[in-house]
Amino acid sequence: MGRLDVITGPMFSGKTTELLRRLQAAQQTGSVVVAVKPRIDTRYHPTDLVAHTGESFPARCIDAPAELLKIEADVIGLDEAHFLRENLIAVIVELLDRGCHVICAGLDRTSFHVPFDEMGRLMCEANTVVKLTARCSVCGEPATHTQRLIDDERDIVIGGEGMFEPRCRTHRLDETPRDDRPS
Ligand SMILES: [Zn+2]
């Protein structure tokens, strides 16, 4: 039976590490496991999934969600799912209907603190959702937000430490673009 699990939270919360742990566990039970990530994410390694801890798992890079439909696997692990915006939910539902177990990891919000819509849809469709927290770079309390330290208006900026920091609700800066603020 198809199954969707979502792992979400801010940057530096261990989402990829948790995804790797689950994929390794599935592989140990004899399932055919394929890890996938958007080609846009080449920060650490061009193909493997690499956690901030340094652990890795071989992965295929895709440019569009439809490429997921060509993968033959019992378990598909998709990292950085928020980067694949167009049509992702329809493709995931198709995989679930085929009986695939899909595990998606990705950011719930942009660093402007605005939801990534496609991640919200995945969470609605999911059997389980885990929201991880990082540690606030100011006070050390659990961090639910990603704070952008650089000046860039785009929703998607590829980067890691030095460009973004985890922050709690108190220490996030409200830089939400005016159009996205509740009126
Ligand atoms: Zn804080």
Bound molecules: zinc ion
CATH topology: Rossmann fold
Distance between the termini: 43 Å
Uncertain spans: none
Describe this structure in words.
- By secondary structure, the protein is α/β, with parallel strands linked by helices.
- The chain has a single domain (3-132), classed as Rossmann fold, CATH 3.40.50.
- 18% of the residues lie in helices and 26% in strands.
- The chain has helices at 15-28, 88-97, 117-125; strands at residues 3-9, 33-38, 49-50, 56-57, 59-62, 75-78, 101-107, 128-131, 134-135, 142-143, 145-148, 164-167.
- The strands form four sheets. It has a six-stranded parallel β-sheet with strand order 5-2-6-7-1-8, with helices on both faces. A two-stranded antiparallel sheet has the order 3-4.
- A hairpin with a 6-residue loop joins strand 9 and strand 10 (142-143).
- Helix 2 (88-97) packs parallel to helix 3.
- The termini are far apart.
- The model has no long low-confidence stretch (mean pLDDT 89).
- Zinc ion is lined by residues 136, 138-139, 141, 167-168, 170-171.
